[in-house]
Design a protein that fits this description.
The chain has 319 residues and is of the alpha/beta class. It has a single domain, classed as Ribokinase (UDP-N-acetylmuramoyl-L-alanine:D-glutamate ligase). The chain has eleven helices and 13 strands. A hairpin with an 8-residue loop joins strand 12 and strand 13. Helix 1 runs parallel beside helix 2 and helix 1 crosses helix 9. It is globular, with a radius of gyration of 18 Å. The two termini are 16 Å apart.
């Protein structure tokens, strides 16, 4: 299993994650004792870039950090995964973005995000980085960047012939033009329902016919391919462009003892991008990403917890 040189361009956010671990998450107005604290590199886009880079991907990241120690930490971590950070702009006008995270004993979390320098990333940054898009295989986007910036990046990727992967998180309504410029939509079940105007999502045990209804709804919104993640129940790949009989694929979950689920979704996104860039089908890439995300949840933190290619291959070989 090798990673080919098709470039992955990731656009968006870099944050310092301020994480405190507790036995349980606090109720409103309640104060709890913490059981550990850490400051780690994070941010959805930085995480996705690192996840792809650790898998051997040829990755370039576009974003912004402040001229502060958190910015230094983030650039070092992302570059350490082999990611090209030459297009991550440093700004004196804002501090590096921050996420305050609480993680309970079951690995579940709550997150509060302050954009900081991420809010300064604008369409002009996309224009300045046009060379990164030329010949790119995959453009990986999320909504921690401003919507106009995401639209500009999607258009640049679309015009360059890349596969535009849009992770609709944190959820926000998107214009039809962005949907049409995207090739693959990655959402959880709740986000899928919101995107599809409140449509009910099939249950975990639903058959292909029920998911075919969802596939048709996505296609009506200009999206022929989507991956819907279902938490502990795995995921579903909806691919209108696949051969009949292969348009709906259930991806079984990888069972692990979760320690910290923070950033597991980003591990899935970055891994999906890496395997699409390596030439795999959407279903193959999603199956790989499911394993990578599960392995990421077995360690504390985000970027340092992400698996290498051999880790995922070893787990897959065990069945």
């Amino acid at each position: 299993m090798n990673q080919q040189a098709g470039r992955i361009v990731v656009v968006g956010s870099l944050n310092a994650d301020l994480t405190i671990y507790t036995e349980r998450l606090p109720n409103p107005g309640e104060t709890l004792h913490g059981e550990g604290f850490a400051v780690n590199p994070g941010g959805k886009s930085a995480n996705q870039a690192v996840a792809a880079g650790r898998l051997g991907g040829n990755v370039a990241l576009i974003g912004a950090v402040g001229e502060d120690s958190n910015g230094d930490m983030l650039l070092a971590s992302v570059a350490g995964a082999g990611v090209d950070v030459s297009r991550v702009r440093r700004t004196a006008d804002a501090e590096t973005g921050v996420a305050v995270i609480t993680v309970d004993a079951q690995g579940e979390n709550t997150i509060i995000y302050s954009a900081g320098a991420n809010a300064t990333v604008a369409p002009g940054d996309i224009e300045s980085a046009q060379d990164a898009f030329d010949g790119a295989s995959v453009v990986c986007l999320c909504l921690e960047a401003g919507l106009k910036t995401v639209e500009a990046a999607a258009k640049a990727g679309h015009d360059a012939g890349a596969t535009v992967l849009l992770n609709l998180s944190p959820y926000a309504p998107v214009p039809q033009s962005l949907a049409e410029a995207s090739d693959v939509l990655l959402v959880n079940a709740h986000e899928a329902s919101q995107f599809l105007d409140g449509a009910d999502m099939p249950g975990a045990d639903a058959d292909a016919a029920a998911w075919n209804v969802v596939l048709l709804k996505f296609a009506a919104h200009g999206l022929d391919r989507a991956v819907v993640t279902l938490g502990a129940h795995g995921s579903v790949v909806l691919d209108s462009l696949a051969d009949e009989g292969s348009r709906i694929t259930r991806i079984a979950p990888t069972k692990v003892d979760a320690v910290d689920t923070t950033g597991a979704g980003d591990a899935f996104t970055g891994s999906l991008a890496a395997r699409l860039a390596a030439g795999e089908t959407l279903a193959e890439a999603a199956a790989f990403a499911s394993v990578a995300a599960a392995l990421a949840a077995t360690k504390k933190g985000t970027q340092a917890a992400y698996p290498r290619l051999e880790d995922v291959a070893r787990t897959q070989s065990r069945g």
